[in-house]
Write a structure and sequence with these properties.
Keywords: Calcium, Signal
Number of helices: 13
Protein name: Alpha-glucosidase
Subunit structure: Monomer.
Strand content: 25-35%
Pfam families: GH97_C, GH97_N, Glyco_hydro_97
Distance between the termini: 86 Å
Helix content: 10-25%
Shape: globular
CATH topology of one domain: Beta-galactosidase, Chain A, domain 5
Bound molecules: 1-deoxynojirimycin, calcium ion
Largest sheet: 10 strands, antiparallel
Cofactor: Ca(2+)
């Protein structure tokens, strides 16, 4: 009897510590932590009393360290914990982003810190929860201690038990790409739909489970709750996927492995990224949420004066469409770069990045108020860039003989324009890091202040994945090195963003999803751009490259494909797809055909003092009004799926007593993305606060409105 009493007092009772609940500042979100009976950390989450995450376990499985543990099995950080302390605190601060959707952002949460000890290993970990009005973040923290110095992660087992068979907007799990089409299905249908999702463009190379999905994952419950799972501040850690137990509707974290299969190499003190669950009964709150940014650390760059939002055009779309080439010659020089005499190479006559053409693009940018001109294919190596042995293809400093780097930069600067650098690494990552100092020195020498990066193809060192811990370290290393050179970074094919642009605002863009380029490769569904703001954009802006007004590519090239929006739908994207970096992606000669519609692209801002999401439903429509930074001008964008949409926009956000010159770019009555994309109307009128605009969006279309204060 006494033995049982002692067991209860010293072993079981501390483990079964009373549940701790912390609520969001407005009380709508509640988070409860308990240790289950075997000392397993467990949490649950509700919104206005409704279950969002049912009781779910937390923990990490560790891998045996071949060298250090002398064959001894590693103790997992999964169970057998006791609570040593808990702390509840509150935080409320308003901060100013260097660029963003609003001039200020409020970071307001209540926090629960749970200190845990695992007696069997004498290890201490902390689980920290931050509860916001629109969701919560949790992370594991590993303080420095004798019993936990270095450790290897076999798998993180963070569960998210869903309360029902929700509708989900999901991408198939993949360690290397997120350039697939989003699938919309019930959670229970993911398994059956998975192969179709993966095979859509055949790009998936490392699928791990038929119920594995990527984040940010947007869901909607049958009773109207919008739930989003993602991560924030993924630093020195592998990108997280979610694997669904589709009998019980429980998601569990599934980290990206490295080439050896390990998922994390850790050294204390360290933390995991935040695991985030956003929730609301209003879809607009998903889009206006700043939860991911708030969970990232404040800006670490002291002088940010050189970081600036940018509209840019570029020598790009004509290569993507197939009319011209990145490479200078069609001869295949499979010899090392420095052995080639480029002045003797035979030009193919289709090399786009030549001095005369780039000059035309600079003139086009200068004439239309665009700040930069991207030039791809300026540097030697494109003849051989996709070979599978690509050890060291690009040096990032040697221009092709027909690209006069000094003259073009001088010419651009004389017109108030900058060239934008391009570094396609073809995923030869170690070599890129070796070339980086010289590459940035060249940029500084000629006055480039932004670089578009790229990671096409398999990672070298071989076997690693685009979303592994080491690759995530690499992308951030490039951003930090770039900051030292006052260079802004926009990397394509890199891992999906997790809000790090708050800490490093020179990270002005990423691709990390299916961009406009796919319209030239076969197309993306019309609902694609009314899903992305709910999913991919949660972690940071996307270089989506909108603005293709000549949507039917066959009118100017041999490419039979067409863009799956109306012309006006392309205008709307400048407002609905928030980014401080916006491409004006079509060719100058195509814009010349639609100068009246092009006016909106010239006028629209890409940095904002305020943003109001007016209407939203994932996969159906998004309407947003934004106030241009430092002005009284507003821009409104509406975008819809293949079904069209009718919007009623009440202008109650305008300043009282002011008059605005309003220009409405709308789909004409007979417009549609597939049959009649270029049928549009432009209407001008004067409006004031309280007026109402009724706007009809065509199938695959949208609308764009500019409101210039008088
Ligand atoms: C893929 C990128 O998404 C695209 O924008 C770029 O032009 C090519 N890679 C070549 O770097
Ligand atoms: Ca891409």
């Amino acid at each position: 009897m006494r033995k049982i009493q002692l067991f209860l007092a010293f072993v079981l009772l501390p483990m079964m510590a009373a549940a701790q609940t912390v609520k969001s500042p407005n009380g709508n979100v509640a988070l409860t932590f308990t240790l289950s009976d075997n000392g397993r950390p467990t949490y649950e989450m509700t919104y206005k009393g409704r279950a969002v995450v049912k009781p779910s376990h937390l923990g990490l499985e560790l891998a045996k360290d071949r060298h250090a543990s002398k064959g001894k099995d590693e103790t997992d950080l999964m169970d057998g914990f006791k609570i040593t302390d808990t702390r509840v605190s509150s935080f409320d601060e308003t901060w100013k982003p260097v660029w963003g959707e609003t001039a200020t952002i409020r970071n307001h949460y209540n926090e629960l810190e749970v200190d845990l000890n695992q007696p069997s290993s004498d290890r201490n970990i902390i689980i920290r929860f931050r509860v916001y009005n629109d969701g919560m973040g949790l992370r594991y923290e590993f303080p420095q201690q004798k019993a936990l110095n270095y450790f290897l992660i076999k798998e993180e087992h963070t569960q998210f038990a869903m309360a029902g068979d929700h509708t989900a907007w999901w991408l198939p799990g993949d360690y290397d790409t997120q350039e697939q089409e989003t699938q919309q299905s019930k959670l229970s249908e993911i398994r059956a739909r998975f192969n179709k999702a993966v095979n859509w463009d055949n790009s998936s190379v490392a699928v791990f489970s038929p119920t594995g999905v990527q984040t940010s994952l947007q869901m909607k419950s049958s009773d109207g709750l919008y739930i989003n799972i993602h991560e924030a501040a993924c630093v020195n850690y592998a990108t997280m996927h979610l694997n669904l137990d589709d009998k019980n509707m429980v998601f569990e974290s599934w980290l990206t492995p490295d080439a050896t299969g390990l998922k994390g190499c850790m050294q204390t003190p360290c933390t995991t990224p935040w695991r985030t669950v956003m929730v609301s009964d209003d879809a607009r709150d998903m889009l206006s949420s700043n939860l991911i940014l708030n969970l990232n650390e404040p800006c670490k760059i002291e002088d940010t004066s050189w970081i600036h939002p940018t509209k840019y055009c570029g020598v790009w779309w004509e290569m993507i469409v197939g009319k011209s080439t990145w490479n200078y010659t069609d001869e295949y020089p499979s010899v090392k770069l420095d052995l080639i005499d480029w002045t003797k190479a035979k030009p193919n006559g289709r090399h786009a990045a030549n001095t005369a053409k780039v000059k035309q693009y600079i003139d086009f940018a200068a004439a239309n108020g665009l700040q930069q001109v991207l030039v791809e294919g300026w540097n030697v190596g494109w003849e051989d860039w996709a070979n599978m042995w690509k050890a060291d293809v690009f040096d990032f400093v040697t221009p092709y003989p027909d690209f006069d780097i000094k003259y073009l930069n001088d010419y651009a600067h004389s017109k108030g324009v900058k060239l934008m650098m391009h570094h396609e690494t073809s995923s030869s990552v170690t070599n890129y890091e070796r070339h980086l100092p010289a590459a940035f020195a060249l940029m500084n020498k000629y006055g480039y202040d932004a670089v578009k990066g790229g990671y096409v193809g398999d990672i070298i060192p071989r076997g690693d994945h685009h979303f592994s811990q080491a690759m995530n370290d690499h992308y951030l290393y490039v951003v930090k090195e770039a900051a030292k050179h006052h260079v802004m970074v926009n990397a394509h094919e890199a891992t999906r963003p997790t809000g790090l642009c708050r800490t490093y605002p020179n990270l002005i863009g990423n691709e990390s999803a299916r961009g406009t380029e796919y319209e030239a490769f076969g197309g993306s569904r019309p609902d694609h751009t009314v899903v992305l703001p709910f999913t991919r954009l949660q972690g940071g802006p996307m270089d989506y490259t909108p603005g293709i007004l000549e949507t039917q590519l066959k009118t100017w090239s041999d490419n039979p494909n067409y863009v799956h929006t109306t012309l006006v739908g392309q205008l709307a994207l400048y407002v609905t797809m928030y980014s401080p970096l916006q491409m004006v992606a079509d060719l100058p000669e195509n814009y010349a055909k639609y100068m009246d519609a092009f006016q909106f692209i010239k006028d629209v801002a890409c940095d904002w003092d305020d943003s109001r999401y007016l209407e939203a439903e994932p996969g159906d429509y998004i309407t947003v009004a934004r106030k241009a930074k430092g002005t009284d001008n507003w821009f409104i964008g509406g975008k819809c799926d293949e079904n069209g949409h009718k919007s009623v926009v009440k202008l109650d956000f305008l300043d009282k007593g002011k008059k605005y010159d309003c220009t409405i770019y709308a789909d004409a009555k007979d417009a549609s993305f597939d049959k009649n994309p270029k049928s549009y109307t432009i209407t001008k009128k004067t409006v004031k606060r309280g007026d109402v605009l009724k706007l009809a969006e065509a199938p695959g279309g949208g609308f764009a409105v500019s409101l210039m204060a008088r």
